[in-house]
Amino acid sequence: MATAQAIAPAVRPYYARHNTFSVFGAYSGDSSHILLGDAENRKLLEFGVAYGRKLYLNHIVNLQYNGEILPVALESDPVVLDTVNWTSPTVYTESGTEVQTTPCVPSSGSYSNTQGGTIYSYTYTLTCSRRWTIGEGMSPVGMQWNFLPRNKMQPFFIGHGGYMYSTKPIPVPEAGSFNFTFDFGAGFELYSSRTRSVRAEYRYHHISNHNTANQNPGIDNGLFQVTYSFGR
Description:
- Helices cover 0% and strands 66% of the residues.
- The protein has no helices and 10 strands.
- The chain has strands at residues 19-28, 43-57, 61-88, 92-99, 107-115, 118-147, 153-166, 178-191, 196-208, 219-231.
- Strands 1-2-3-6-7-8-9-10 form an 8-stranded antiparallel β-barrel.
- A hairpin with a 3-residue loop joins strand 3 and strand 4 (92-99).
């Protein structure tokens, strides 16, 4: 008599690496008061590398350490150019620039007033430009949680803490060049093989000097990031 042999169902492999190396680019076209920051209309552009290591893995979650290094971190502030053309009592022009917490709004107008028989009058024009400041940063404290690691498409959560150093104070001249940073966000990671993947994510990103400078308006950005990862 033939005996039936039960065949165990094949277990799908994990799409997970022990060690992960990544390169990424991130961009935000605006800032606002999302949680903590008050500086508006700031842009952020970052290019960096990351290292991850698996800490815990089961069929539900892949818990990983994740640290990032930013050799290029660019921050952009709106700049107001104020030009005043005096027409009385003398004719001359004066101008100056200012980086302010609020967005720059172009405008123009005129002023005239008589004091002690003397007429004081001028026209003014406010124009807008941007100032890009280069810096570098590091986020040595970070974790990543990938869910459903047997699937090629995996949702994940991620978060970091670190610092950013810039060549000029940001986001205003009275703030500091050394700032603390943290971020957290979520996205999807798509594996093309068991060792290679692409991530797309959205993060809340915060920059502030923790009141170590005269002013600390802070910057809140919604950051979009794309990451290519490989490893073993």
